[in-house]
Design a protein that fits this description.
The complex is a heterodimer. Chain A has eight helices and no strands. Chain A is mostly helical. Chain A folds into two domains: about 100 residues, Rna Polymerase Sigma Factor, Chain: A; about 70 residues, Winged helix-like DNA-binding domain superfamily/Winged helix DNA-binding domain (Arc Repressor Mutant, subunit A, Orthogonal Bundle). Chain B is an all-alpha fold. Chain B folds into two domains: about 60 residues; about 130 residues, Alpha Horseshoe (Serine Threonine Protein Phosphatase 5, Tetratricopeptide repeat), CATH 1.25.40. In chain B, α7 runs parallel beside α9. Classes of the chains: A mainly alpha, B mainly alpha.
């Protein structure tokens, strides 16, 4: 698998290289992570999945345009950072458990965020297609309006832009309603 | 505020830091005075984060599905990997071990061969008849019954008493040899050979060679055998010649 080719394909909207690259280095990564950092196979697998996703996101956002080394080295580098975060959070959790005392959660805590994400997930399901894909392309995959127009066969950029606006407006309404239901 | 495409675009450009300084200043002023606009900006921010999180979740789910379809991960068998320097050291160590083992192997092999030859050629000298009541009679009875373990302490005791010393010493050497006690046997036969007039002198030459053989002293065994074969009338000339060739 030519690494520069992987970047080009992902830039062009092809997601197939993501699974190809996942398959190519999964076993090497798990072996390396378990052996060098003493984490479990399950955590190593989760970290690797996150590393591949970040690799994809960095290409889509334009942060990664060409590789100085191989894709494998790049992935392992992301993986290493994630393992360090995981180990730090495990240490923190252990410390918290040792010195546990009740403290009120701060406003906009991770728990609040999690709750909002869950509400949004419900709202996205209600929103349905093609809006879900349009918003995913624009806000997650960083597609330009022109790329969305081309990928989804809209008549032109204006049509795609209008569609995106309508989808976002609809999502806002559903999201607001779901929030009310929850509260 | 009015929810229009233009307003939405303005908020998105604000969140992307794409506004000109003038546009930025005007919007920030409006945010101070229009609570509805501030709420709208906050909502957009939440939705963006949520959409990004949802997109990431979808990708992770896709990879988890891919993982499920893959062959289960099995850790590879432990393989020792050496760098060049370690490999070099390993080869040198291996070579050194082989060099040390070769002589050990040769010695062990020779000893095994010597042991086989000893077993093939050693026959304890037949006993001698001694009259009943002779101090040697009990020891000789045990010896003739091949109970060398019983005979040996009696012979040693008799030697201490100075009884029938020539005969006792020779049979003590034989009993020792039969019991795999080569050093004691060598000592007995060497004492005999110190006396050229000893009645068992020629027999002691042959048995001393065998004692050396049992003790793994091939060189001494050969020298002793050569002294035997130098006498063509020696009672063990034939056997000694054969054995010498085999050594």
């Amino acid at each position: 698998m030519a690494d520069q080719n992987v970047i080009a394909r992902i830039r062009n909207g092809d997601e197939q290289p993501v699974t190809e690259i996942y398959r190519a280095y999964r076993n090497d990564f798990i072996y390396w992570a378990v052996r060098n950092y003493g984490i479990t196979e399950e955590i190593a697998r989760d970290v690797y999945q996150m590393a591949v996703v970040i690799f994809y996101e960095n290409i889509r956002s334009g942060k990664l345009t060409h590789l100085q080394s191989s894709a494998k080295t790049y992935l392992f580098g992301i993986g290493k950072n994630k393992i360090m975060e995981e180990l730090a959070s495990q240490r923190k959790a252990q410390k918290l458990q040792e010195n546990f005392r009740y403290e009120p959660l701060p406003a906009d805590s991770p728990e609040d965020k999690e709750e909002l994400f869950k509400i949004l997930e419900v709202a996205l399901n209600e929103l349905g297609e093609p809006c879900r894909t349009v918003l995913d392309m624009y806000y997650y995959k960083n597609y330009g309006i022109d790329q969305i127009a081309e990928a989804l066969n809209y008549k032109g950029n204006d049509s795609a832009k209008t569609q995106k606006y309508k989808c976002l407006t609809r999502l806002k309404k559903i999201f607001a309603r779901q929030k009310e239901v929850k509260s | 505020m009015k929810d229009t495409p233009l307003e939405t675009e303005l908020i998105e450009r604000y969140l992307d830091n794409e506004l000109t300084p003038d546009e930025q200043a005007r919007l920030e002023q409006r945010l101070q005075t229009e609570p509805g606009l501030a709420e709208e900006v906050a909502l957009h921010r939440q939705l963006r984060l949520g959409l990004q999180s949802a997109g990431r979740s979808r990708m992770l789910t896709m990879l988890a599905d891919t993982d499920q379809k893959m062959e289960k991960y099995h850790p590879p068998a432990q393989v020792l990997r050496f760098d060049d320097a370690t490999r070099q050291r390993f080869y040198w160590a291996a070579a050194a071990i082989v060099l040390l083992l070769i002589p050990l192997y040769l010695v062990l092999n020779q000893n095994r061969k010597a042991d086989k030859l000893f077993v093939a050629y050693f026959k304890p000298y037949q006993g001698v008849n001694v009259p009943a009541g002779d101090p040697l009679s009990q020891a000789m009875r045990e010896y003739q019954q091949r109970d060398y373990a019983q005979a040996l302490p009696i012979l040693e005791r008799l030697l201490g008493e100075g009884s029938s010393e020539d005969t006792t010493l020779f049979f003590k050497g034989n009993a020792s040899l039969a019991l795999d006690q080569a050093p004691e046997a060598i000592h007995s036969f060497e004492l005999i050979l110190a006396d050229p007039l000893h009645p068992y002198y020629k027999e002691a030459q042959w048995y001393l060679a065998l004692a050396y053989l049992q003790d793994g002293e091939r060189k001494e065994a050969k020298e002793q055998l050569q002294s035997v074969v130098s006498d063509t009338s020696h009672p063990h000339y034939q056997e000694a010649s054969e054995l010498l060739k085999k050594l």
